[in-house]
Amino acid sequence: MGSVTKTFTVTAVLQLVDRGEVGLDDPISRYVTGVPGGDTITVRQLADMRSGLFDYTRDEKFLAGLRADPHRAYTPRQVLDVAFAHPPGFAPGAKWDYSNTNTILLGLLVEKVSGQRLGDFLRDRVFAPLRLTDTSLATDGTMPDPHAHGYSDFTPDGAVADATGWDPSWGWAAGSVVSDLDDLRAWVPALADGRLLTAKTQAERLRTLPTGFPGISYGLGILDTNGWLGHNGEIPGYESIAAQLPAENASLVVLVNSDVDHDGKNLSSIIGNTVTSIVTPEHAWPAPVPTEPE
User: Fold this and answer.
1) Is 217 a catalytic residue?
2) Which of 3, 51, 152, 240 is flagged as catalytic?
């Protein structure tokens, strides 16, 4: 699912908030050691992408390594080492900047506080209560059957390859959940109405702030784009959108078994924009913009 995973991981964190075991304004250093500036970065700032921590997926050496050996397994600490080799981009809370590093740290927080592996906590506390029987946190490149093969040009020479068995561990809490259309269709209403959380905590989650992108604001592991509440995701071989439009009681789930752009544009966003422009024209999913010169 790529970054749709963040909706699940942050839900786990917010459940710990509801249990009184974590405070949104606690410093991350209370739960995870070795974070640069961890005494001043809060759990909230990690969840709403305002920590200032460098996103390890922007490190060119790291990306080159992924392209060269997509089957390599990574630990959370290994990807954090990549991130922490770079200085923070700004003071915590100063602005919004999307960083997968934030959600990796939140996954470690869940494990520290709960005493469970993240995948087990998600299974017991998020997936099972909603009967998401085909949803799991991947631990390696093995895909459950049946599955769609995914195709990617994230290769050393840009050639398209079958990415189905590539190891997603580098994405972990930020990107390695596996799911299907039916489970995501059940997930997005629950995400938007907060049925796994208290009303107070759900209100905190949905207190979205500007991102700097027109019409898009971001809360705690959730975006609001033109009224749609949810997330999009991309990982080599796959793209996804999972969102709910409370104003129309509508769910949007888009799954694409390729992350190869079309005319420089993201495929899932093309589909999401096309469908919503017809079905919910007053609440269209944003049109994709080229990721490279056409």
Assistant:
1) no
2) 3
